[in-house]
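Bump. Still looking for Carnitine catabolism transcriptional activator structure tokens.
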Amino acid sequence: MRPEDFRSGEAAATPKQLRVGFVLARSFTLSAFALFVDTLRLASDEFDRSGRVLADWQVLGSTRHLIASSCGVQVAPTSDFVDPSRFDYIVVVGGLLTVERPVDLETIMFLKRASSQGVPLIGLCTGTFILADVGLMASHQTCVSWLHAKAYKERFPDLPVRSDRLFNLDRRRGSCAGGSSAADMAALLVRRYISREAERNALEVLQIEKARSPGDVQPRRPLHENYDDDRVRAVMITMEQNMEDGISIPALASSVGLSRRQLERVFLEKAGMSPAQAYKRVRMERAKVLLAHSKLPMIEIALDVGFENASHFARAFKRIFGATPSQVRATSGRAH
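Sorry for the wait, here they are.
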């Protein structure tokens, strides 16, 4: 049995091995690779025995030289570039965008050969940049982290991209924002190709309560990313880092070399609101994420974003979003 165009049906009663080849870019993101491959490992066997029963994986490379991740940890390829058709998926794990040549020419030729043979290609983290650079994302929609969306649009203005989802499956291309969503994407492939039981086994050992779907949204981008003025951005970053205890407006102004009155003028001109209003907005955006993606009690969320009690928090939240925290949480639960 072979997956066709990321087929959506359930797995057959007697599944064959799910075979995945990994291509690691120079300065690749270790967490994305580790979460993806560990989901395969735990789904492949029972009781964390790590046997390659239902899945197999190889780290492919043009040489056996160690490949350094962005955090400095190195990984050794376990296989040369063999026939791509041996694998059900080829996963390209990207990393730092500042690396000029993330993969070598032989790697590029291998990816093109895999594409010509109809092997589905997945770009993990910034792996989609590598695929797009060599013309393998044409006519396919790409999902990237909000952090990299602007860079993708600038580099590939003719290619469709979105940063509102965790991952995307588009015919014979997959793309993933990276981070913990790598486990979600791997879990979906395990469920489709092996079984729901294998997926559940992997997630339980990884301490993941439930895999998220391609329809789940990325956690909201930091509010400071919406503004171009360096002083506004710097102050809002400080706000984001000081939600629970808070920091005074005069202290925020001083941190960027302005008086309180000057900071007020800058915020009204560049952000369309006062620093105090911006601070409240930052807190409420954080609260909205916690409501959607955690089961924390309301009082804990209120305290986390700087409110003394849940009732005051609920009133402030409703003034900004037009719905109560309970309503937002209930809506998010139905979406999942």
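The radius of gyration is 23 Å.

Edit: fixed formatting.
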